[in-house]
Write a structure and sequence with these properties.
By secondary structure, the protein is mainly alpha-helical. The protein has 18 helices and no strands. Helix 13 packs across helix 14.
Length: 392
């Protein structure tokens, strides 16, 4: 008897795995008092195997005519060559040298394979409505458990950097706001408002600036998408109130909310949280190696904390062009993400989540350490490519 596997189930499971699987994986270690690698490594192996499975099933979609796949493979091949060259020709701290093989493994297995798999999928056949329902429910449940655990243990359940902790809440806020604006009939309003404020509270509690900036950018995108002057007015009022709240907090709040302190210093004083010297050093390296770039990382393993400067410093103008060439289907089919009447409404939510992580990589992390940015990038590219090859 021939066993058949439902394609819709496979794609739904894979997309949920790359969208929220990492968040689930990093939520077990602390409550169980175990090493986070006990959960992150099995998750990585699962994604590698699943990606290979998707690539095999959709191998007919891998074509030399697909500019995004070519750009993806050529760039990361170039990046690995530059990484090896940098470690062999520049000085680094000893602990940084030990990470070389892990970096190459991460690029090949956690960046390249899942990204190619995501580019192969036919997104016109994906049940995004069902996926988003699971997504918002999982995030809400994890954050509820997080605060119950926090009340008991005075800690949070996620073994992650404080900025990424804030972006878990930002994701829930963005999804909830999108559903309230465009899909409210499919959900209970009180549930979405609960998720909205739960996500916002998590953003503020994280003490990070990046998630606050991200939800502001994504909220503006969704309000523009809504195209209602009333909502634009509400947004302007909320923005002014928020800025006023930051100023009042600076004057009378005794510095109790760290993220507000950082926002105030950024807005009023242009403070970049010690990133200024990194930016200057990256520009200096780029100016000495404009075409192919110079070293991939600084001596201590730190990166420039800005995706454009990191690309220019490490891979030069050539690398920058090759990297962003993969987004050509997104540019060519921009109406799918900016016109509410075009395509599946949930395509706009995927684009909003991409914007969140695109905002993050302007100030934090490096090119291959934020899987969500890489995966949402490939998803919007895949959506654009699907629109190009058939009627959406």
């Amino acid at each position: 008897m021939k066993i058949t596997i439902n394609n819709n189930f496979i794609y739904k499971l894979f997309l949920l795995s790359v969208m929220v699987g990492n968040t689930i994986a990093i939520s077990f270690a602390k409550p169980l008092e175990m090493n986070p690698r006990n959960f992150s490594i099995p998750y990585r192996i699962f994604i590698i195997i699943f990606s290979l499975f998707i690539i095999y099933r959709e191998r007919k979609n891998i074509s030399f005519k697909n500019i995004s796949i070519i750009s993806l493979v050529v760039f990361w091949g170039f990046y690995i060559i530059k990484l090896i060259y940098s470690f062999n020709n520049y000085s680094f701290n000893q602990e940084v040298l030990l990470s070389r093989n892990e970096d190459i493994f991460r690029i090949l297995c956690m960046v390249l394979l899942p990204s190619i798999a995501l580019l192969c999928i036919n997104y016109s056949k994906i049940d995004f409505k069902s996926i988003v329902k699971y997504y918002v429910t999982i995030l809400c449940s994890l954050l509820v458990i997080n605060y119950i655990y926090g009340y008991i243990k005075l800690d949070h359940i996620f073994s992650t950097y404080y900025i990424m902790y804030g972006h878990i809440g930002a994701s829930l806020f963005i999804i909830s706001l999108f559903l309230l604006l465009f899909c409210r009939k499919d959900y209970k309003s009180y549930f979405l408002f609960f998720c909205l404020f739960l996500g916002l509270f998590n953003v503020i509690q994280s003490m990070a600036r990046s998630p606050l900036v991200a939800i502001s950018v994504c909220s503006l995108y969704m309000i523009i998408l809504k195209g209602n002057k009333k909502y634009i007015l509400y947004a302007l009022i909320l923005l002014l109130l928020f800025i006023g709240l930051i100023i009042l907090h600076e004057q009378y709040g005794n510095g109790e909310i760290t993220s507000f302190n950082r926002m105030y210093k950024w807005i009023a004083q242009g403070d970049t949280s010690s990133r200024g010297p990194l930016y200057s050093k990256a520009i200096e390296i780029f100016n000495s190696h404009r075409l192919f770039g110079g070293r991939i990382l600084f001596e201590d393993g730190v990166h420039p904390h800005n995706i454009f400067l990191e690309l220019l410093m490490g891979t030069g103008i050539l690398g920058l062009i090759i990297y962003f060439l993969k987004f050509w289907p997104v540019v060519k089919n921009a109406a799918l993400f900016w016109n509410i009447q075009k395509g599946n409404i949930y395509y706009k939510l995927i684009f909003a989540l991409f914007l969140q992580y695109f905002t993050l990589v302007q100030t934090s992390c490096n090119l291959f350490n934020i899987p969500e940015f890489l995966y949402f990038s490939s998803m919007i590219i895949g959506i654009g490519y699907t629109a190009k090859t058939q009627e959406v």
